Amino acid sequence: MATVTFDHVTKRFADVVAVDDLNLEIGDGEFMVLVGPSGCGKTTSLRMIAGLEEISAGSVRIGDRVVNDVAPKDRDIAMVFQSYALYPHMTVYDNLAFGLKLRKVAKQEIDKRVKDTAAMLDLGKLLQRKPKELSGGQRQRVALGRAIVREPAVFLMDEPLSNLDAKLRVETRANIARLHQRLKTTVVYVTHDQVEAMTMGSRIAVMNEGRLQQVGPPQELYDHPVNRFVAGFIGSPAMNFVDVALTGQGADAKLSAEGITIPLPGRFRQVVGPTTDRKLVAGFRPEHLELGETADGAARVDVKADVVEYLGNEEMIHASAGGRDIVAVVDSAARVRPGDILELHVAPGKLHLFDPETGATLVAERELLPA
Ligand SMILES: Nc1ncnc2c1ncn2[C@@H]1O[C@H](COP(=O)(O)OP(=O)(O)OP(=O)(O)O)[C@@H](O)[C@H]1O
Ligand SMILES: [Mg+2]
Asked: pTM (2 decimals)?
């Protein structure tokens, strides 16, 4: 097992900065997920760990060793890609054994590792089949198995589930999580799917345009996003953002926009200061909007429901407030219908505020205090 460390790592392709001054420490045995929109530098970061991409500046360490100039085969890593290619003419057994044979591992040892891995991935009965005789999910498990038999110090996975249908993806996701609990090997896992990131990662590193935005456990990113980008990226459906104007002072300070009134929560008073007439961006998650009378101190959002999506236990309401789209998720017992005029509210503790220029989160006093 090993740690993986990015120390001021930059990668340029001609004039494109794919990864910009990345600093990240991945702990021994940790399941770290790199997540972010297409083109943000996830695959490039992973390929630098693997040694498949030269590093323009900074250094990558595996354990204590700087690996910038170490050949991929000497890095003790195994990689699972989105488009895994199994050897079509070989059986599952030989696909699993192939890498070990190349490394001249003893035959008995190969047999033991292949069988152990197959048992772990429930491939025991399929060892004599060829890839074309397997389902997509079974093939994906063989691809994972090929990485596992090598017993590497670090697993690198680049969107390994993206070729699977929704149901298989959920199953395989759980399989990988179980495997990690069992093997306790360091994993660096790349995905652009925030649900995958939230469910699998012990920590998540959110990237955008080559830059690391925030790294932390899933719940920390959900509860305390450092900026508007992370706030909008983590959580599904995405957080609602509204441009609001600050008026009044002290206990009378409020944030408003058409159809929306938010008493400024006390914890923000200090950071907002005595200025009035300031513009801010308010953020609140769809699942934190509640139907019914607004309690004192809560934000009030008056909307008209446009579309209601019934989801079984919940319903998702696409509504408008002053020409702005607002998404709310409420208990389906509410039976909201299109055209309904609704009063929604948000508890003050669930409100996020952002600087409209920088996108940075306004950090409230309470959050500045040590826990
Ligand atoms: N070989 C290359 N030559 C030039 N530019 C490249 C090369 N590889 C990647 N890039 C650029 O670097 C940036 C980061 O690419 P990268 O593949 O790391 O993104 P990603 O986060 O993995 O995206 P996706 O989710 O689409 O896979 C992109 O702007 C991409 O166009
Ligand atoms: Mg990629």
From this structure: 0.91
